[in-house]
Design goal:
The protein has about 475 residues and is mainly alpha-helical. The chain has a single domain, classed as Orthogonal Bundle (Ribonucleotide Reductase, subunit A). It contains 12 helices and 7 strands. Bound molecules: fe (ii) ion (2 copies). One fe (ii) ion binds next to helix 3.
């Protein structure tokens, strides 16, 4: 169970390590300042129906109740230790998992933790304005839930930095509060986390596509030979599932509402659809193309010696490593990666060890495809002859073998000029953004009411009705 009587709730027996406890208590006010400055805007007085972790056991870890957000109990929760856990891959396979950081892996491990940690506050910063235009109290509560949990994920990484990396770790923990999403001088580390999230369609796409990158990275780190990192990530994953649920159902509800209107009014021209105050499927496709492509970049270069080193040394595994039936060393294995040669995209085999980024990206794509099929089923059951598609993997990429090439969503290699000419067929234009934002001018705050452009969810949170007061305004 988690001790909430402590200033920093935790299940790591923080009180036993006074130096660490003081260091984290020193970091805490900086964290709260960060939350007030860059967290959800104008929310200090709100009471939000949030879940708070009470234990890390899979059953019944969440307790629901009204919380003023700055009083949310951010804390440090690790899955309990498995005493006989071993390293499951790489050259140290079979040795006991590390409880302390091996000296020679220190800087690589710190870099992994900082890079993961940096994404957590970034998404809160990206979403800070969205409460002002929420389509319902239900959705308002959900975005706040996501925000407080991303804040907790920052705590999770900061605990590891403070506990295991001494002074360097404390400096990194400070820097995590100093970088800002989209800041020209001191941006967040990864590209997708510096993109704006200007409206709720972008938010739902982000939580579907980009939080799912989070899931796959956490799954790979949950295999880590560094046991405290693995245990931290396992608990973070239980929270991540809800973020992706918010994204998938959010986009699904927008699609559903659009389809209802199209069917009722027998319209299919995007301008007629917009005239009814809902988001045309073509615009949804363009948002999808953007969020999918910038998220694919997060996996890094197709061929990467860093990825190989992380694996060989036991720091970062594959998705579902222990369920894979091979040698977990990848000494002779190969894996296909794409390359652009002339005006053709070709596939070539490279040592699997160097292609681990690409492999994780492919695992991710596989799960994305399943989500897309569920969205398409909504369109199909409305009898509308339109399908959402995933663009080609090479479309709109900035990192890896496709960077610097101009690939259409269909996978043709184009000239820069030809690609630019069609850019706004494929990606949302300033006009598309202006239209979507015009629908979201103010929050819908009446319990049970939903903005015209989105269907209500199938059920409420924690079995509450849809007209429940998910947020109280005082
Ligand atoms: Fe997170
Ligand atoms: Fe998340």
């Amino acid at each position: 169970m988690i001790d909430y009587t402590e200033r920093i709730p935790n299940n790591v027996d923080l009180g036993r390590d006074r130096v660490l406890q003081r260091a984290l208590e020193h970091w805490q006010p900086g964290y709260l300042n960060w939350w007030y400055e860059t967290g959800p805007r104008d929310t200090s007085a709100l009471e939000v129906y949030l879940r708070t972790a009470t234990s890390v056991e899979p059953d019944g870890w969440a307790q629901f109740g009204y919380v003023r957000m700055p009083e949310y109990r951010w804390g440090i929760f690790l899955q309990p230790r498995d005493e006989i856990r071993a390293i499951n891959f790489g050259v140290r396979k079979g040795q006991p998992a590390w409880q302390e950081v091996p000296g020679e892996l220190r800087s690589a491990l710190r870099r992994i933790i900082v890079t993961q940690g940096d994404t957590e506050p970034a998404s809160v910063e990206q979403q800070k304005m969205l409460g002002m235009s929420s389509p319902s109290l239900y959705d308002l509560r959900n975005i706040f839930q996501v925000n407080v949990e991303e804040g907790r994920h920052l705590w999770a990484m900061v605990y590891l930095l403070h506990r295991y990396f001494g002074r360097d770790g404390r400096e990194e923990a400070e820097a995590l509060l100093e970088r800002r999403s989209g800041d020209a001088d001191n941006p967040r580390i990864l590209g997708a986390f510096n993109e704006p999230t200007p409206d709720w369609l972008a938010f739902f796409m982000f939580t579907f596509f980009t939080d799912r990158d989070g899931k796959f990275q956490l799954c790979a780190l949950a295999e880590s030979g560094f046991d405290p990192l693995a245990r931290t990530c396992r608990f973070m994953l239980t929270e991540e599932a809800h973020h992706m649920f918010v994204g998938e159902t959010g986009v699904g509800r927008i699609i559903q509402r659009t389809c209802e209107v199209m069917k009722e009014d027998k319209i299919d021209d995007p301008s007629d659809v917009r005239a009814m105050g809902v988001i045309d499927l073509q615009t949804i496709q363009r948002y999808l193309n953007f969020h999918y492509s910038v998220t694919l970049d997060l996996y890094g270069s197709d061929v990467s010696s860093n990825a190989a080193n992380y694996y060989t040394s036991g720091l970062k595994g594959r998705y579902e490593e222990t369920k894979i039936g091979d040698d977990h060393l990848l000494s002779d294995a190969e894996y296909p990666v794409s390359e652009v040669i002339g005006n053709k995209i070709v596939s070539k085999n490279v040592p699997a060890l160097t292609a681990l980024n690409e492999r994780l990206r492919d695992d991710y794509i596989h799960e994305i495809e399943a989500g897309l099929r569920r969205w398409n089923r909504i369109i199909e059951s409305a009898g509308i002859p339109f399908r959402l598609d995933l663009p080609h993997k090479g479309f709109h990429r900035q990192i890896g073998n496709f960077a610097g090439h101009y690939i259409s969503p269909q996978g043709e290699v184009l000239s820069q000029e030809a690609w630019k000419k069609r850019e706004f067929e494929w990606l949302a234009s300033p006009q598309d953004h202006a239209y979507v934002q015009s629908l979201m001018s103010g929050p819908v705050v009446e319990p049970g009411k939903f903005a015209n452009w989105i269907a209500p969810p199938r059920r409420g949170i924690n079995n509450q009705p849809l007209n429940f007061q998910y947020v109280r305004f005082n």
